[in-house]
Design a protein that fits this description.
The chain is mainly alpha-helical and about 300 residues long. It has one domain. Helix 1 packs antiparallel against helix 10 and helix 4 runs antiparallel to helix 8. The longest helix has about 30 residues. The protein starts with a helix and ends with a helix.
Amino acid sequence: MSANTVVGSSLKTLLILQAIPLFFSSNIILGRALNTMVEPATLAFYRWSIATVILLMFSAFQLWKFRAQLFRVVDLLFILGFLGMFVSGAVFYAGLQQTTAIKGALIYMASPAIIVILEVFFRGARVSFARVTGIIAAMTGVFIILAGSAEQNPALFTWQNGDLYCIAASISWALYSVILKSERLVKIPTVVLFSAIAIAGSIILFPFYLWENGFRASYDFSTETWVSIFFISSVSSVLAFGFYQKGVELVGASTTSLYLYLLPVYATVIAVSWLGEVLSIVHVVGFVLIAGGLYYSTRSFRDRQKIIAKNQ
């Protein structure tokens, strides 16, 4: 492999990692917007059943090819479906019915730190000083943005019932990320594994969907609502989870999850560009800390890429 190929691969990896929070932010924003129109489990079920159909267009043959390996890890597939699609999906949407999208996103910011802790305790991972310092800097940036937004939105510092659901979703996402790196799953291609997890998640969500709708199918939504659901299924699910899973495969769960700290940055840029909100010095300081923390905490990853390129 040439040095140029390594550099190109490194750039591709960084683009994947930086796109992840952008895709996830759309789920939070639309999940909050749809909370009065679609019930939580119903939204999660349609999200993942449509996503499954999309994925099967690309993975049906491969799923059959790897069926033996998938049956051997069916327990992990349903655990991941429960954590990633039910708790981080339906339960999180239930939380967004009772709290704000901004607060839900900020609570999710705890997951990278939880992932690092889980990897230390369960995998014996070593955490560098740069990683810890970078996480602290990024979290400080998030809280500075939070403090700057509190004047316009006092609810950010007020406990709401939905916060507990969002905390559960954050912990669940951390568990999902760590289990995704299990040695039992490493030989299964990304798209095959993701498709199998989506199928398992849809199966888990189905009875809750029926219960939520009085054991009747519910599909009498407006065109705008269906467009939003399809967007969540394709962009916030297929692309977001697919990119995240690829990131975990390439650089590990703890490094990939750190890029979630860009969520409030993207959210603020969208608010300024589309909603006419004002960019303040508080936002800029928060952005600098998040960017600096992210850069510093992922330094070891970039150093490895440089060493590989140098030795080619």
